[in-house]
Design goal:
Radius of gyration: 18 Å
Strand order of the largest sheet: 1-2
Structural class: mainly alpha
Order of helices and strands: EHHEHHH
Distance between the termini: 23 Å
Helix content: 55-70%
Shape: elongated
Length: 102
């Protein structure tokens, strides 16, 4: 976030979260909210970004996250399959991901 505000250092930004997902997360955090606030050193500020706004304003962040997750899933799939032909080294996944992001 580009602006300064009280609590910026205790801010959790949540991307790709539409209204029902936002409510669900807040409901799940309720039982541990006081512990989160205490750990953060003050009230935790949660800034939600809907899917549309995440894509519109932070496309590079969202795309980078999806590339990272995809690379991790592919690496996991390769690890679990010994019969991959041709054999692929899991170490090759990261350079492929970085080359795709450039």
């Amino acid at each position: 976030m580009a602006c300064d505000f009280d609590g910026r250092d205790r801010t959790l930004e949540v991307f790709d979260a539409d209204a029902h997902e936002q409510r669900d997360l807040l409901r799940r955090l309720r039982p541990v909210r006081s512990q989160l606030d205490e750990t953060a050193g003050g009230p935790l500020v949660i800034v939600f970004h809907t899917r549309a706004e995440s894509r519109r304003l932070y496309a590079d962040v969202v795309d980078g996250w999806y590339r990272k997750v995809l690379a991790e899933l592919v690496a996991q799939w390769i690890d679990e399959r010994a019969d991959t032909d041709p054999p692929v080294d899991v170490g090759d996944i990261e350079p492929l991901r970085l080359r795709g992001a450039a």
